[in-house]
Amino acid sequence: MKKCKLSKDKPRTLQIEIDQAPPSINGMYRFTNRGGYITKKGREFKNYFEWQLKSARVKSFGAARLRTDYEFHFKGKRLRDTSNYIKTVEDCLKGILFDDDEQIDYITAKRYYHCPETKIIITISEIV
């Protein structure tokens, strides 16, 4: 994690920058006749993401209503479906920064191609 900034204003806002792209929802989960499971690639990203958040000692928003803003920066030019990445990131944040992804009332997402580095910038704000 490169940056983790917490605003001192009310409502509380947190900005996180992760230096790795998430797997898409299609690469994060697999489904069989016996049910679904998280893939190895998905587990590795989730563990990395959780470790980054816990090492930054970020305090949870609890059950507050939230707004999330995502910026996905990709090095290459391969086209990507932004909504597949949003769900992956929300699943990783659930249980650490908020109780359930149902709490998110507003979502905005931007994606950029041909960037110097691959990263995700996430801004989470309380709605009052």
Overall pLDDT metric: 88
Q: End-to-end span in angstroms?
A: 28 Å
pLDDT under 50 segments (min length 5)? none
Percentage of helical residues? Answer: 25-40%
Helix count? 3
Largest sheet: 5 strands, mixed
Supply Rg.
15 Å
Secondary structure class reads alpha+beta
List the quaternary state of the chains: single chain
Strand content: 25-35%
Instruction: Give the helices and strands as they follow along the chain.
Output: EEHEEHEHEE
Basic shape: globular
Secondary-structure topology with pairs:
Elements: E1 3-6, E2 13-18, H1 25-28, E3 29-32, E4 35-38, H2 40-55, E5 66-73, H3 82-93, E6 104-112, E7 119-126
Parallel strand pairs: 5-6
Antiparallel strand pairs: 1-2, 2-7, 3-4, 5-7
Note down, in words, how this protein is organized.
The two termini are 28 Å apart. The protein has 3 helices and 7 strands. The mean pLDDT is 88. The chain is of the alpha+beta class and 128 residues long. The longest helix has 16 residues, at 40-55. A hairpin with a 6-residue loop joins β1 and β2 (13-18). The protein is 25% helix and 34% strand. It has helices at residues 25-28, 40-55, 82-93; strands at 3-6, 13-18, 29-32, 35-38, 66-73, 104-112, 119-126. The radius of gyration is 15 Å and the shape is globular. The strands form 2 sheets. It has a 5-stranded mixed β-sheet, with helices on one face.
